[in-house]
Structures are given as structure tokens and as C-alpha cells.
Design a protein that fits this description.
Blueprint lengths: L4 E7 L5 E8 L4 E4 L5 E7 L1 E6 L2 E6 L3 E4 L5 E5 L5 E7 L2 H10 L14 E2 L2 H14 L5 H19 L13 H13 L7 H8 L3 H12 L3 H17 L5 H7 L5 H12 L3 H19 L1
Antiparallel strand pairs: 1-2, 2-9, 3-8, 4-7, 4-9, 5-6, 5-8, 7-10
Helix pairs in contact: 2-3, 7-9, 8-9
Length: about 280
């Protein structure tokens, strides 16, 4: 079957990062270049492409990296289809991350391989791609983007950043936790937390996880769920509980609540109401 399918997304909160997921059988890219990176993972099938003067064959699980200015094409290496997911970050996006990692170089982050076999990293890139396509909090998506691409740079960039040891920062992290607990209903962004702590986003992610035992977005979600529990012990409508605790939709709220508590918000409220009724009956 001749299967050709293309989907594209944009994440405005990540400097308008574009992403593509495509399945091609006969479609072939014309030779071209662009001024941003193309970084992707082959999910199924086999890709072949030329980049500058070399020809590559990239099987399922392989990562490809096309750097700005490199002339390239691409198509299926066989008579059957191949599927891939790709990111198209701007040069400034990777420069910012590599700078926050401690690199002294101000130039273009460079890679000396167009195809990389790294099973762990390919899984992380695919997980990030799925996360960014979903209705998830900006803080979670921003954190995952920085963390995933920092791993790519640390493991495979020509000039690997020399990561500094994370210091104990218990007082500042305590202030950050307080900020999250006070503003949990807001759309907290990673840059908001970084500015509040006077740290870079990359350093904040490392320190917060070390001190709190979980990343900032997971801490925020825990605070929101606890607040939701308190609301559910009253009579506030479920849709309003979702809104008041910062969730983007009632379905997102319900799914998150069940992951944390083990039951749906409606079930939790019903259990609490039965408990209250039993206590009331006992007093009579």
C-alpha cells in the first residue's frame, strides 16, 4: 500500500518550535538546506538520505541530525514505507541550552555524525515529541525540551559541555516551592521560576530535582492535586475544581487526579460524601 501521511505542529511557547511526523513510501525530498536544525528519529522502516557529499542509511531507532546549511534530501530506503518524528529547533535554542550547560563556545553547536545509534536517547526524543503534541502544562513541556536536548548535546556534540557539580541550594529551593504553592493555579513557566531564583533554567532543573526529589512540573502537579482534594471535599462543581487548580481541561484534571490518587475526582467526592454522611448519622 502506498502510504503517505504528514502532520506538523508548532509550540509557540518554545520559540515557535516546529515538529513533524510523517510516513512516506514513494515521496522523496528534493535536495535543499535550511538555517535551523532538523533532528529526528526513525520510528519504523528504513530511511536513506544524502547530506553534503555522504550517503546514509538509517534504520528504525536511528537518530538523524541535519545541521544548518547542510544540503540534504531524504526518502525510504526500500519499497515499503518509513515513519519518522522530527524537531526543527532554531540555532538560538540549542545555543542557549549549551551555554547554560557551561560551554565556553559561543558558536554554532556542532555534531560530527549525521546518524546516531543511541537507543536511550531515541526513546527520550520520541517521548518528548509525544509530550509536546499533547495538552500538557507549559512547565512540563519546557522542562522536558531542555532536559532532552541537553542530553543530546552532552552525549554527542563535538564540544561536549563540562557540567559543573550542583551545589546545595536548600534555601532557594524552599523559596521556589513556596512560590509554586502560592501560584499553583497560574500558568507557571520555567523562565518565571528561573527569574525568581536568579538561575538559568537548566541549572534550576538540576538543583530543584536534587533538593526536592522531583522536577518542578511534578511538584506543581502534586500541589494542584492536593488543592483539588480540598475542593472536592466541598460542593464545588468538578469543572470549576479543574479551573481553580490550574488544569487546562476537565479531562486533563481527571486523568492527572486518577494517576495520583487512584480514583477519579467524582469517585473521590462520592467516597468523601459517604464518609461525611456516616459521621453525621453516627452523631444522631
Amino acid at each position: 500500500m502506498n502510504l503517505e501521511k504528514t502532520e506538523m505542529w508548532c509550540a509557540p511557547h518554545l520559540n515557535h518550535l516546529t515538529m513533524l511526523r510523517a510516513t512516506y513510501t514513494t515521496y522523496a525530498y528534493k535536495r535543499h538546506f535550511h538555517d535551523y536544525f532538523a533532528i529526528g528519529v526513525i520510528e519504523d522502516g528504513v530511511q536513506t538520505f544524502s547530506c553534503n557529499t555522504a550517503q546514509y542509511v538509517n534504520p528504525a531507532g536511528g537518530i538523524f541530525i541535519i545541521q544548518p546549511g547542510e544540503a540534504h534530501d531524504g526518502q525510504s530506503a526500500t519499497d515499503t514505507s518509513f515513519t519518522y518524528s522530527a524537531f526543527y529547533p532554531q540555532v538560538a535554542d540549542l545555543q542557549r541550552i549549551v551555554g547554560e550547560m557551561g560551554s565556553k563556545s559561543s558558536g554554532l553547536p556542532a555534531f560530527n555524525q549525521a546518524v546516531i545509534q543511541d537507543t536511550q536517547l531515541s526513546k527520550r526524543l520520541l517521548n518528548l515529541h509525544r509530550l509536546l503534541r499533547q495538552d500538557k502544562p507549559h512547565l512540563e513541556q519546557e522542562s522536558a525540551f531542555i532536559d532532552t536536548f541537553a542530553q543530546l548535546l552532552y552525549r554527542h556534540a563535538v564540544d561536549r559541555p563540562n557540567l559543573e557539580a550542583v551545589r546545595r541550594e536548600s534555601q532557594t529551593v524552599a523559596r521556589l516551592r513556596g512560590y509554586i504553592e502560592e501560584h499553583y493555579a497560574d500558568d507557571i513557566r520555567l523562565d518565571d521560576l528561573a527569574s525568581y531564583a536568579h538561575w538559568s533554567p537548566f541549572y534550576l532543573l538540576r538543583v530543584f530535582h536534587q533538593e526536592a526529589g522531583l522536577p518542578p512540573h511534578a511538584y506543581l502537579e502534586s500541589v494542584r492535586i492536593r488543592a483539588a482534594q480540598r475542593h472536592l471535599e466541598g460542593e464545588m462543581p468538578l469543572v470549576q475544581v479543574a479551573y481553580e487548580t490550574g488544569f487546562s481541561s476537565q479531562s486533563h484534571f481527571s486523568n492527572a487526579f486518577k494517576r495520583f490518587i487512584g480514583v477519579t475526582p467524582g469517585h473521590y467526592r462520592a467516597i468523601f460524601c459517604k464518609t461525611s454522611e456516616s459521621a453525621l448519622t453516627y452523631t444522631h
